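Give me structure tokens for this 89-residue protein.
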Amino acid sequence: MAYEIAFTGSIEEAFDGLEADERSYIQKKLDQIASSEFRHPSQWDFKPLKGRGEGRFRIGNGLRVGANIDDEENTIRVYWADRRENLYR
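Here you go.
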């Protein structure tokens, strides 16, 4: 079943601080997740975050997306996108 992708603010706010190639990669991956015919969005490395209304997708290339999956409205609501912090440098 196809899902819609919605941003809680603007797409610019969600992708603030990311490079153009990172934004493009995230958008392509979100499109792939939303249009997957045989996998539910939560099966794409999605983890609910404790104490928050959203969860996060590990998109790949060290990128994360904070989102909520609404099955009633078939919508993936995106809150933020960011790079994974490497604490071991």
